[in-house]
Amino acid sequence: MNDITNLSGFVIGHIPFVDIVPYFTPFSLALVITIVIFTIFLAISNPELRSVARFGEDKVSTVTVEQKEARFRRFMTILCGVCLIGVATTGDMFNFALFVSITGIVNLGIFAVVRNSHVLDAAFEYGLVLMICSLPLFGGVAILLAKTGTLSMAVLASIPGNPILNVSRALVLIGAIGEGALAPFFATKVEMIRARGAPFINMMHLSSLIVFTRLIEIMFIMG
Amino acid sequence: MAIIPNTVVPAFVPQIFVNFYPIAIVAAIIIAVIGLSAIILEKNDFQKMLIIQIPILAMYLIVSAVGTDLAEALILPGMVVSLAEILAVSEILVSRELTKRVDRGDNPRVMNFKYPIIKMEILKTALPITSMVFVVYGVILTGFTGGAVAGAGILIYVFVGNVAGFPHKFWEDMAGISGVAYVFWLVGFLIFFLAPQYWLIALFMAGGGITIKVALKLGLLGVLGREEYNR
């Protein structure tokens, strides 16, 4: 049995949308500041110029990223930052699931424009994992709703843990791990990092980090 | 066996509905296991993408098993997200195949259809009547459901058969009408909140607007698909 304020400090404020209640604690405020700084840094930076040296030849060539491709990936990066702010601040379990899966789709979008069959292969496998993992993610949230009758994290934090809640906790954990490309699924991510255009693909690491950090808090809230 | 305690479910809900919940969850788990084992066995990438719809169907089943208004509101974003995932992954599949063909030195735009498209009489004659039945029934239903039904009728008309349809200009005008209907829907909802005593006019505006909007959007989807296919 945990209280939200025990986990992440006092609630600084909340945004009263109709039923979407994002709230800020010192913990989530730190995450939001990190995301905003990182996203602004990526949005104003230019894509890298990668030098390719082939073994055995005395030749070095520079790989450039086309303007159109770079623009699309920059847009997707900014979108990913917005989704991550949603992940870090939301106070509703279903919105958490939605934001996490949108983060996954946007991550896929960062890599979708790369014309490289290795990268596209890995991105396709990641997309399959995304689609499969929406089953445990949304299923876990739905079982939680059926068991407790609420999706609000503030109410959930005061409900004591029990075996059925642990089932839905495990399902949400599996789902979020798949959507955020965390531990067992990051093999595809390694392949996708071979894409050229360095600053934008770093957004994927940040999204994994934020999803993981927030997931731990949510695991405690649901318990 | 009853997973839901009676404190959450209101007292006026019959016990038989409450007892259906574990059955629905077990059915969803069975469906998911079948779908996931099919994905493991399947080797073709395109087939894999199609088979993944089976676990997603199990996801819809688990969400809808809750059976409240909130569950109905939750299933729509779930559907939108899974649709977005399918679109993204299929785009990646197409672009991967094109890239592979370019790498091999083939012409990426040449497609060889092994079998010609069948010319059947029924595809020409039955389609207008079927789509008309759909559209009339959708208009009677009204609302989001009616719009979806009517839109399915238009979709059948423009996409499935090889019918002499309306010119391109007509569908551009329809897009404009769809936008106007959307505004009607929004204004209807605004009246609901601002002046609740005029609820009847608001209901008619919202119901009619969403019908026209959804129907025309589905129809435009079909037109876009056909033009993409014929290009």
What this model shows, in words?
- The complex is a heterodimer of chains A (223) and B (231).
- Chain A is mainly α.
- In chain A, 67% of the residues lie in helices and 5% in strands.
- Chain A has one domain.
- Chain A contains nine helices and four strands, in the order αββαββααααααα.
- The termini of chain A are close together.
- Chain B has 231 residues and is mostly helical.
- Chain B folds into two domains: 88 residues, Helix Hairpins (Orthogonal Bundle); 104 residues, no CATH class.
- Chain B contains eight helices and no strands.
- In chain B, α3 runs antiparallel to α4.
- Classes of the chains: A mainly alpha (223), B mainly alpha (231).
- The interface between A and B is large, with 35 and 42 residues.
Keywords:
heterodimer; A: 223 residues; mainly alpha; two-stranded antiparallel ribbon; 9 helices; 4 strands; 67% helix; 5% strand; elongated; B: 231 residues; Helix Hairpins; 2 domains; 8 helices; 0% strand; globular
Estimated structural class of chain B = mainly alpha
Overall average pLDDT of chain B:
79
Q: Report the end-to-end length of chain B measured between terminal Cα atoms.
A: 57 Å
Q: What is the percent of helical residues of chain A? A: 55-70%
- What share of residues are in beta strands of chain B? under 5%
Structural class of chain A: mainly alpha
Oligomer class: heterodimer
**pLDDT averaged residue by residue of chain A:** 80
* Shape label of chain B: globular
Q: How are strands sequenced across the largest beta sheet of chain A?
A: 1-2
Number of folding domains of chain A? 1
As a whole number of angstroms, the C-alpha radius of gyration of chain B is: 23 Å
Major sheet attributes of chain B: none
The tally of structural domains of chain B comes to 2
Uncertain segments of chain A: none
Largest interface: A-B, 35 and 42 residues
